[in-house]
Specification:
Blueprint lengths: L1 H6 L7 H29 L3 H27 L2 H7 L8 H49 L19 H20 L2 H25 L5 H23 L7 H11 L2 H12 L6 H17 L7 H8 L8
Helix pairs in contact: 2-3, 2-5, 3-5, 3-6, 5-6, 5-7, 6-8, 7-9, 8-9
Length: 311
């Protein structure tokens, strides 16, 4: 409709009816945006339907309409029409040109805000709501009592991780088919960043791990969850970099872990000048272990989650 109306501009005899046509186009876009917002508000209680179909479809539609409108606004005819706001035009043309130029900019900003921020934020939150219960179920595995992996006991993915991986992959795959590439990239970046924090807090921080439990949680997250989703979202380690570092802290050999614990505990009663040196020593040690994203206090907390260190 936007393109069809624009094609008829040249048939109009003067600027004033062309202004009316442009105003009609902007009315259509505003009405379209309002209808989409009303449709989401009427269905927002059904988070699964919103996450799978409504929000990705509406984000893409709004983004596409905004791009069409932006392309239309850059055509020579519209540029010339809106330039009539200068002193060479009649007062009436000048007022209409200024008003429509402001309105056009406002609607383009609104299309971009709805597609990139509002709808994608709701989509990320609804996706997290759909899988959060599965994350909690995964977190409730008996990590503290799991036996160590041996030549007779080969690691396999826990059923809870299998369910979490299947549902998360299915949801993200459905978004990939409905979102424009730029929107899908933005959505997956924010989603995996939030999921990284949830896994860190609810799985790692809230549990105690035996040697076998630490190996199992690393196998589930690093060898399975991050690998499969990483291919889907095109992010290194699926964007779960902090959780992967936490898994590495849980599974570094006991001797290295004990040295880290001693290093953390060594600066407790040190003078102020020595504490700065102690802090630098900790950061240097973490850097040598390739622990670059977790804060020192987070590493110390994770070390205390290991049952084999007796700390």
């Amino acid at each position: 409709m936007l393109k069809g109306i624009t094609d008829r501009y040249s048939l109009l005899p003067s600027s004033l009816p062309q202004f009316d046509f442009l105003s009609l186009q902007l009315d259509l876009v505003e009405d379209f945006n309002e209808r989409l917002k009303s449709h989401y508000e009427a269905n927002q209680e059904d988070t699964e339907q919103c996450a799978r179909i409504i929000l990705p479809t509406q984000a893409t539609a709004t983004k596409f309409v905004g791009e069409v409108l932006a392309d239309m606004a850059s055509t020579p005819l519209i540029v010339e029409l809106l330039s009539l706001s200068d002193s060479r035009s009649s007062p009436e043309c000048g007022r209409k040109a200024k008003s429509l130029a402001v309105r056009l900019t406002s609607i383009l900003d609104e299309c971009n805000r709805l597609a990139r921020e509002s709808y994608l934020t709701h989509l990320r939150n609804d996706t997290l709501d759909s899988i959060h219960g599965l994350v909690r179920e995964f977190a409730r595995q008996g990590w503290k009592s799991m036996p160590a992996v041996t030549e007779f006991l080969v690691a396999s993915m826990t059923p809870a991780m299998g369910e979490l991986l299947y549902v998360t992959k299915t949801l993200i795959s459905s978004q990939r088919d409905r979102l424009l590439t730029s929107l899908f990239t933005r959505y997956t970046n924010t989603l995996m960043q939030a999921l990284d924090q949830i896994l860190l807090e609810e799985v790692i921080y809230d549990n105690t791990f035996s040697t076998g439990g630490a190996s199992q949680v690393k196998f589930d997250i690093v060898n399975n969850f991050a690998v499969v989703l990483g291919r889907l979202v095109h992010l290194p380690h699926a964007g779960l970099s902090r959780t992967m570092e936490a898994c590495n802290v849980l599974t570094i050999n006991r001797g290295s872990a004990m040295l880290l614990v001693e290093l953390f505990e060594g600066g407790g009663a040190a003078p102020k000048a020595d504490k700065k040196q102690h802090s630098d020593d900790i950061r240097k040690a973490l850097g040598e272990m390739n622990l670059l994203l977790l804060k020192p206090e987070e590493v110390e907390l994770i070390l205390h989650r290991r049952s084999d260190l007796d700390v």
